[in-house]
Automatic annotation (TrEMBL):
It comes from Paenibacillus flagellatus. The chain crosses the membrane at residues 239-257, 269-297. InterPro entries: Glyco_trans_2-like, Glycosyltransferase_2, Nucleotide-diphossugar_trans. Residues 11-172 form the Glycosyltransferase 2-like domain. This is Glycosyltransferase. Coiled coil: none annotated.
Length: 323
């Protein structure tokens, strides 16, 4: 692997699932613009267990495109995992991630690379959607809701986020240190930090085939993302418990008052009070347990505690600092 790093400047990683319809065209275009951006490029396509002719298309393309590398997963693992596979075998000093359906315009590749080369601050050059193409309004609203919630829950900005990005080698190396199994690439990249520069683009309609996401698939991705990036849902339980307790006080006071005023059925007061007290106690305990689970979850993820962006080492002898 180390020998490759020197030779490859730009890797383009493309996950593909049942993309036979336009994959050949995509690769042709990507190769053209990648060549323009950096002659020392490679394209890595990950066939995510396609059930159509995607792999055959790749075999044909490999004959024409000498810088094409293809991986074929044993089954459909989902886009996030396919991305992992591609990123792990990418050797470039910069890695671009994009979709196979030309919704991430390859014309932008030279621009991403140019920004990365010229802007010393750019560790990540991110494609940000200007318009959500021809997406149906349900998906647009869904996306707005999802990214809005995620932004609020995690405190990181997600709006307009796409998987169309250029990542510097040091970001890739940092990303590889995140050991979790369930991955959400966009979220992980935000978590990593580093300097991000945005480049806007319009999302053209899908060039062929159909979207691979079902509503359920998207819902699952959303849930994964929220669980992976925030303990807020757990906290909500505790908060609801406190709210209940407050309610218990109010209702309890009222019931007691009625008891004293003498217009309550016998036993009613006790039942109400017990119900309220036990209810809120249970909720608060659950919330407390939730806090611990959140802490455990964080530990189990085993992420590095911090990541270093740059460092200047001094050459004092016998005083070497490990990175
Ligand atoms: N994809 C994949 N595995 C999957 C689903 C999708 O590798 O299980 C790839 C797909 O081939 C495409 C990218 O992920 O390159 C984005 O998928 P799609 O265009 O269907 O999603 P959308 O643009 O509608 O969000
Ligand atoms: Mg698409």
């Amino acid at each position: 692997m180390p020998d490759g790093i020197a030779n490859v400047e730009l890797s383009v990683v493309i996950p593909a699932y049942n993309e036979e319809a336009q994959l050949s065209r995509t690769l042709q275009t990507v190769a053209y613009y990648a060549q323009e951006a950096s002659p020392r490029y490679e394209i890595i396509v990950v066939d995510d267990g396609s059930s159509d002719g995607t792999w055959d298309v790749l075999l044909q393309c490999a004959g024409r495109l000498p810088r094409l590398k293809a991986l074929r997963l044993s089954r459909n693992f989902g886009k996030e995992t396919a991305l992992c596979a591609g990123l792990e075998s990418a050797r470039g000093a910069a890695v671009i991630v994009m979709d196979a359906d030309l919704q991430h315009p390859p014309e932008l590749i030279p621009e991403l690379v140019r920004v990365w080369r010229t802007d010393a601050k750019a560790d990540i050059v991110e494609g940000v959607k200007r318009m959500r193409g021809d997406e149906p309004w349900t998906k647009r609203i869904g996306a707005r809701l999802f990214y809005g919630t995620l932004t609020r829950l995690t405190g990181h900005r997600f709006e307009g986020a796409t998987d169309f990005k250029l990542l510097d080698r040091k970001v890739i190396d940092a990303w590889r240190r995140l050991p979790e199994r369930t991955t959400f690439f966009r979220g992980m990249v935000v978590w990593l930090g580093f300097r991000t520069v945005s480049v806007e683009f319009d999302v053209p309609p899908r060039s062929g085939g159909q979207t691979r996401w079902s509503f359920l698939g998207l819902a699952k991705l959303a849930l994964n993302a929220i669980i992976a990036y925030s303990a807020v849902p757990l906290r909500i339980v505790g908060a609801v418990g406190l709210l209940f307790l407050f309610g218990a006080f109010v209702l309890g006071a009222q019931t007691l008052y009625r008891k004293l005023a003498g217009d309550a059925v016998t036993g009613f007061t006790t039942v109400i009070l017990l119900l309220l007290v036990i209810g809120s106690a249970v909720m608060i305990s659950l919330g407390t347990i939730g806090e611990y689970i959140a802490a455990i979850y964080n530990e189990v993820k085993g992420r590095p505690r911090y990541l270093i962006r740059e460092q200047i080492s001094c050459e004092t002898e016998g005083n070497e600092v490990a990175a």
